[in-house]
Structure formats: C-alpha cells, structure tokens
Design brief:
Blueprint lengths: L14 H4 L19 H30 L8 H23 L5 H25 L4 H28 L7
Length: about 170
C-alpha cells in the first residue's frame, strides 16, 4: 500500500540558517538578539513547509512505486531507502521547526506537531530497516493516522501564526 504523503503544510531546510554557532561567552556589550517579528516567523515557517513539501513529493514517488506490494516495481531496498529519506526529511523539518521562536498557542501547537513527528520518525526508522514489504505495510498502517494528526496540528500552527490554511 503506498504511503499517502500530503502533510498539507509542512516544512523547509531552515536548519542551517537558524542554528546557533558554538562559541565563547558573550561580552557584556554584546547586543541582545532581536526577537523575530510575526512576519519573520511566518516567513521562516512558510519556507520550511515549502521545502518539506517539495522534497516529500520526490520521495513519495519512489516510495509509492517501491513499497506497494501490488506494484510491478516493488523493491525492498528502494522502499527502505525512500523510507529512510522520509525519516531524515522529517527530522530536518523538526529541527527547523524547533529553531523558530514560537510563542503562546503557536508554541503549544508546534510542540504537539513535534510529538506527532517523533512517533512518525520512530515508525519510519523501523520501516526503513524492515526485512520485508509485508512488515513495511503493517508499519505504514500505523503511520497513516499519525500523518493525519500531524497535518491537523500543522494547520493549527499555521492559524496560530496567522497563515491561511493550506489549499
């Protein structure tokens, strides 16, 4: 069974731009970092979501062909690779999400989404190392409701930061 991959509003490689550099202690005269404006938070989230969705579409094509037991192109190795890529993409998205300084209800929605993704990542890790397509299919059945929940949480997060619901 192919993995449905419409996370609606999910995310971009903002990780490198938002990671804090390691270094010595700041001098007393160092300026305090300026908090992001609501429009900057929206822009970071929208870029993160766009990147996730674009890469996810590429992964889904491979996954749908390689992981579907009824497909003429079913292939355990290719399926495992696609699932591993999906997991890595989700981890990168989550890291980018953590780097955005959400406040209020958006912080709560982001935490909920990150919790959903942690469960998805665990199942994807199991699926990526599964010994057979049948085992992967069983794990996919567990992932599907989590994807729906994550999509709902992403929509709530978008609303909390003032972005429209996905089309």
């Amino acid at each position: 069974m192919p993995f449905p991959h419409a996370r609606c509003t999910t995310l971009l490689g903002l990780t490198a731009a938002l990671l804090a550099a390691c270094g010595g202690s700041a001098s007393p005269s160092s300026p305090t970092p300026t908090p992001l404006t609501p429009s900057q938070i929206q822009a970071h989230y929208a870029a993160t979501a766009l990147h996730y969705n674009q890469v996810e579409a590429q992964i889904a094509a491979t996954e749908n062909a390689a992981c579907d037991a009824t497909s003429a192109t079913v292939a355990l190795g290719a399926c495992q690779s696609a699932l591993s890529e999906q997991r890595q993409l989700t981890i990168a998205y989550d890291n980018a999400l953590r780097a955005i300084p959400f406040g209020g209800s958006a912080a709560t929605d982001a935490a909920r989404l990150l919790g959903d993704d942690a469960a998805i990542e665990k199942l994807l890790e199991q699926a990526a190392t599964a010994p057979a397509i049948a085992v992967i299919a069983t794990l996919q059945q567990q992932v599907i409701p989590l994807l729906a929940t994550a999509a709902t949480d992403a929509t709530a997060l978008r609303a909390a930061i003032g972005l429209p619901a996905p089309a």
